[in-house]
Specification:
With about 120 residues, the protein is mostly beta strands. The protein has no helices and 11 strands. Strands 2, 4, 5, 6, 9, 10 and 11 form a 7-stranded mixed β-sheet that branches. A 4-stranded antiparallel β-sheet has the order 1-3-8-7, with no helix packed on it. The protein is elongated and about 45 Å long. The termini are far apart.
């Protein structure tokens, strides 16, 4: 069993910053790609940023230059540094990881953390 636990969400004013963290635990052999997705009310879940085990990254156009994804492989943790936040960044942010365990490779999700950008 694999668990992903997110932290770091909250309420922030426009222009502010937040840092999200997501720690994976359980019977993990290895973690391949990790990423952050978000879902705003009435909208579909969308990719925000993704990072491979070797550190290659890709970002949604809407967050390029403002958000930075990173990971600590020794801690099985992925981070999302969010700067210059806008009201349109308000959403529930979900951590995702492609994890290899004894029974195979699967896609795992965290429970989500709310990010609200408002004055």
């Amino acid at each position: 069993q694999v668990q992903l636990v997110e932290s770091g969400g909250g309420l922030v004013q426009p222009g502010g910053s937040l840092r999200l963290s997501c720690a994976a635990s359980g019977s993990i052999f290895s973690i391949n790609a990790m990423g952050w997705y978000r879902q705003a009310p009435g909208k579909q879940r969308e990719l925000v940023a993704r990072i491979t085990r070797s550190g290659s990254t890709n970002y949604a156009d809407s967050v390029k230059g403002r958000f930075t994804i990173s990971r600590d492989n020794a801690k099985n943790t992925v981070y999302l540094e969010m700067n210059s936040l806008k009201s349109e960044d308000t959403a529930v942010y979900y951590c995702n990881a492609v994890v290899t365990t004894a029974i195979g490779t699967g896609d795992y999700w965290g429970q989500g953390t709310q990010v609200t950008v408002s004055s």
